[in-house]
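Final report, Chapter 2: Outcomes

The project's central promise was a pipeline that accepts a single protein chain and returns its three-dimensional structure in a standardized token representation, suitable for archiving and comparison. That pipeline is now operational. To close this chapter, we reproduce one record exactly as it appears in the project archive, with the input sequence first and the structure output second.
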Amino acid sequence: MISQLIEKIQKTKAPICVGLDPMLGYIPEHITKKSFAEFGETLEGAADAIWQFNKEIVDHTCDLIPSVKPQIAMYEQFGIEGLKIYEKTVSYCREKGLVVIGDAKRGDIGSTSAAYATAHIGQVQVGSKSYSGFHTDFVTVNPYFGTDGVKPFVDVCNKEDKGLFILVKTSNPSSGEFQDKLIDGRPLYELVADKVVEWGNESMDGAYSNIGAVVGATYPEMSRILRKLMPNTYFLVPGYGAQGGTAEDLKYCFNEDGLGAIVNSSRGIIAAYKQEKYAKFGAEHFAEASRQAVIDMVADINSVL
């Protein structure tokens, strides 16, 4: 699967993914009004507004990008109706030829992880038939349970040709409360990196492994260390833009060949029309603002590679 993502990155010359993490506050009033008129101010109405919003953004950016990353929590908050739209969004993005990274951050004891892996990147057996629940191409995984919690995901990756991005050094301000703690003289995130390499060796796909790592853009010196520790691991890099990460910070996440990382931007793209820089587009043309934000982001990142 990682080879497919790399092929799309090379074709678009855009090492980025658009985070489809919609909040109702991001959605222009003309969309919510229409959805509420049809379905009322209900969970179904909110979910429909999210779907209309997502669809326009995907339609306006899909030719520029290799992938998207929907964060499942933004859909789960609207219950079953939200999850329906999550699945609908994933399916639509795949129809458009995009690689879909399901940001679910799952991980548990072995049997539960196996069920999570089946739900997001595998197939569930129902009698004589099998079905894909959410059919994303990648899923993010929390490694806190160790090998017991990760191995079921790796097994499904190998069976279905899918991929993982395992949390190593996250972009949030308090990540260091655990991730930076020293164990035998080394920070915990380095020990996790070692395990990601070990797990990744079971799922190589060309020069890179299907088992990737989440490495935040907000800690560039740590990115430099992790890049050396994980030369054959693809990085999913959050933290660019709204969280403070810059293109200059990002360059350490990449290898000398210009590959090795894909950078996520969520509200910086999907809510671009709210920024002063893109205000000229207005709420009616929010998706055109998102398209321009993608163009600007790609140029910014490529300028340092």
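Archive annotation: The mean pLDDT is 96.
This record, like all others produced under the grant, will remain available to the consortium after the project formally closes.
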